[in-house]
Amino acid sequence: MKYQIMVKMLMLLLSRRKASAREIAERYEISLRSVYRYAEELAVAGIPVDVSRGRYGGISIADTYRLPMGYFTKDEYAAAINALAAMLSQVNDEAALSALEKLKMQTKRERADVAVNGGIIVDGGTWGDTKKFSDKMAVCEKAVNESLSLYIDYISRSGEHSRRVIDPHVLIFKQNVWYVYAFCHTKQEFRTFKIGRIKSARFTGKSFKKREITRDEIPLGFGYRSDELIEVTLEIEKDRLPDVEEWIGIDNIEPRANKFVAEVSLPDDEGLVSKLLGFGGGIKIVSPASLREKVIAAAKKIIDSV
b or e along 145-164 (b: 16 or more beta carbons within 10 Å of the residue's beta carbon)? Predict the structure, then answer.
């Protein structure tokens, strides 16, 4: 009985995305305590169910969540929908109608591509992506296009975990990374959020009026101050040139004699060291010496750990 109710709760949340604890308790004739316990067990099982109180409170599931790929194949979904639709044309059955609506909500897409502004098709997924990233992209795109507020679960680069309501205004694509520029209700100011660091997102059910912003107002440094950037000069081997061009852009690289040289400002952090190590011997750090020493130290640490 317990697990049957948990499955029903999951299906309700997949269909509605949010419901009050009292509504769930009355619908399935269980106590409020059981509702909270079942919600916690669903969360422990890896389903992004959230219990919150206040203005946006209730039992909710992230809009970015879909049933696992192995739950039904696309053909199985279509067959189930067609069978239920055929049955409902002959008889009036509330349970079957509810099941049909839920299946339609979960119909699988052939691909996880996302269309942005109508004229651009973006496959936002990463290698080995389970479509979770693409689902987050779809939610953020919808929020931007339709001026819908989002409640997000966000993990910063430093590991700080926060939950906040944001009003997404613009999607930004920079150096193969997607961001959303949004007004943050918690900080009461505009912030840039890396979509890959949004653990889950759901619509609050509220819309917002977009503020007039210009391109110059959007900070494209993404949190790096000028004193956190260093001037880097690199020599690039021809066979690694395409990879480096995709990283820092063609405009920052020029041929000199028999070499390719890049002069660019980059954030002085561990991410830069890791990126340079990834090019192996195909890239040489001409300056600064401090960066070269960091890369050498990191390479030695890798060798010692093998």
Answer: eeebbbbbbbeeeeeeeeeb
